[in-house]
Every structure is written in structure tokens, then in C-alpha cells.
Design goal:
Elements (H helix, E strand, L loop, with lengths): L1 H16 L1 H5 L6 H16 L3 H24 L5 H14 L2 H4 L7 H14 L15 H13 L8 H20 L4 H21 L4 H25 L9 H12 L1
Helix pairs in contact: 1-4, 3-4, 8-10, 9-10, 11-12
């Protein structure tokens, strides 16, 4: 596409003529790539299509920038990157580009993991980045394990596991176990909650992000009330804060 080629040529020119762009490496751009990814997610959460268009453009810049760096280092070219991804997409979608018949999206996902193993992955759990947020990483690990049958058939026993882990955490706290033991049990509670969320078709990372936004919006009402009342937050009682909080919920 002509527009894309022009875009790539602009990035390559910046790499040659702009001092800042010229200094960047894959490692120095890690934070930028992560930030742009989260800004894309934010625009999706806000259902803001105009912002999504802008943020996807910024994310595309990061990808093309990394490809330009790789080309300068003689690691690989953008053309090679696209060709390899194209081959991968065709190979992993035999139900589209071949004669394979699938029953639905769940079978597609199972086949996807199977193809990854055939491509050289040593473990079903391989390929999950360590840099993922822990909540989402737990979700992806459980999701991958489920593709080979390591999973409950329905959510009920998973919820029982959540209750069991909460009781174990409570017992550890009440018996004044070590900080490490309590932390271990708390991790088990979170992991079991993530598993239950997955089984009831909820992405825990998305759910928590929405709750954080909701909390932030409601807490801002308390701050607004304090300003209008001529008070500092520290001067407000918990009862006053709760009253404003409950009003904001309505």
C-alpha cells in the first residue's frame, strides 16, 4: 500500500536525520511500546473510536520503528517480518486456508496451541512474557493449560476452590503465620479468583481496570465535596466519606 510505504520511508528518514530517533534502540523504546499499548486499551475501554485511530497509529509507529532499527542492525527487514507473520497466519488457520473443519472458536484456539508446539515450543506454557501484568499472566497460563484438558468442566468447583483458598488465608492470618506464608496463601486466592473469572468468561485484567476507574471516579466525588465544603480530606470523617461515596453510586 502506497501510504504504508511512505510511512515507512518517513520513519527510516527520521532514523537517519533526527538525533533522538537515531539514538534509540530496542531496549530504550520498551517503555514507549508498553505505554502506547496501554493507551490503545484505554481508548477501547472508553469506546472512543477517534482516539483508538490515533493510538493505533502511535502503536504502528512503534512496530515500524523497531523494524527500522532491526534493518539498520542487519537483524531482519520489515519485509521479512511481514512475510514470516503471513506464513504463520496461513499455517495456523488450516480451517480457512485449507481443508480442516472445526466445530467453533474453542477448537480453533486448541489447534493454535497445538501448532505452536509443532513449531518448536517446549511447553504449552511457553511464550507468555514475564513482563505481562501478573493478573493477566495468570489468566493466560490457565487458558493455555485448559487447551490440553487441565481444567474444570464448569465454574462451580472453581468457586469452591476460591472459598477454600480464602479460608486458608484467613487461618494463616489468625494463627499469625509468617509474612511469606500469608503472602503465599494470598497469591493462591488471587490465582483461584482468576481461574473462576476465566470459567465465567470474564477477563480479570479488564474487570479490575474497570473497577479501578469506578473507584477513582467515586473518590473524586469525595474530593469535590471536600473542596465545596471548605475542608481538607483529612478533616472528613469516614462516615462523611461513606455518605458521599454511596450518593455517587446512585
Amino acid at each position: 500500500m502506497e501510504e504504508f510505504n511512505k510511512f515507512y520511508e518517513i520513519v527510516k528518514r527520521l532514523r537517519k536525520e533526527c538525533p533522538w530517533d537515531r539514538e534509540q534502540t530496542h531496549k530504550t523504546l520498551r517503555r514507549c511500546l508498553l505505554e502506547e499499548s496501554y493507551e490503545v486499551l484505554h481508548s477501547i475501554d472508553e469506546d472512543n473510536k477517534e482516539e483508538l485511530k490515533k493510538e493505533l497509529g502511535d502503536l504502528l509507529l512503534q512496530i515500524v520503528f523497531h523494524a527500522s532499527i532491526a534493518e539498520d542492525e542487519n537483524s531482519f527487514t520489515l519485509k521479512e517480518l511481514i512475510e514470516e507473520e503471513t506464513k504463520k497466519l496461513i499455517y495456523r488457520h488450516p480451517h480457512v486456508f485449507g481443508d480442516t473443519i472445526v466445530s467453533g472458536s474453542e477448537e480453533v484456539k486448541k489447534n493454535w496451541e497445538h501448532f505452536k508446539l509443532k513449531e518448536g515450543r517446549k511447553s504449552v506454557l511457553s511464550g507468555i512474557p514475564d513482563t505481562l501484568p501478573a493478573l493477566f499472566k495468570a489468566f493466560r497460563i490457565q487458558e493455555k493449560a485448559s487447551k490440553v484438558g487441565f481444567d474444570w468442566k464448569d465454574p462451580a468447583p472453581a468457586f469452591e476452590k476460591v472459598t477454600e483458598e480464602i479460608n486458608e488465608l484467613k487461618k494463616n492470618i489468625e494463627t499469625e503465620k509468617s509474612r511469606e506464608d500469608i503472602e503465599d496463601e494470598f497469591g493462591d486466592v488471587l490465582f483461584s479468583l482468576v481461574n473462576y473469572a476465566r470459567l465465567v468468561k470474564i477477563n480479570p485484567e479488564d474487570a479490575l481496570r474497570k473497577t479501578i476507574t469506578k473507584f477513582t471516579d467515586r473518590f473524586s466525588k469525595i474530593e469535590e465535596y471536600a473542596i465545596l465544603s471548605g475542608k481538607n480530606l483529612e478533616e472528613m470523617t469516614l462516615e462523611e466519606m461513606d455518605e458521599v461515596w454511596n450518593k455517587s453510586k446512585k
